[in-house]
């Protein structure tokens, strides 16, 4: 069974040379899961594109940028 979880690791070097480490956990979800949660919260999908350059969202897209609005 896939857990659909991951951890993002962040290393930040300060001006004095010290390094800070932080991690954040996340859960991967499909765009359809986002749509369902937004709909349950009363939002409507306004737009979805495949990336930050507004390429069309297709079944081959590796990312998405979605905008939901309150009606």
Explain briefly what this protein structure is.
With 71 residues, the protein is mainly β. The chain has one helix spanning 31-40; strands at residues 5-13, 19-27, 44-49, 65-69.
Relevant terms:
single chain, 71 residues, mainly beta, two-stranded antiparallel ribbon, two-stranded antiparallel sheet, 1 helix, elongated
Element layout with pairings:
Elements: E1 5-13, E2 19-27, H1 31-40, E3 44-49, E4 65-69
Antiparallel strand pairs: 1-2, 3-4
Can you describe this structure?
- This protein has 71 residues and is mainly beta.
- Helices cover 14% and strands 41% of the residues.
- A two-stranded antiparallel ribbon has the order 1-2. A two-stranded antiparallel sheet has the order 3-4.
- A hairpin with a 5-residue loop joins strand 1 (5-13) and strand 2.
- It is elongated and about 50 Å long.
- It starts with a strand and ends with a strand.
- The mean pLDDT is 93.
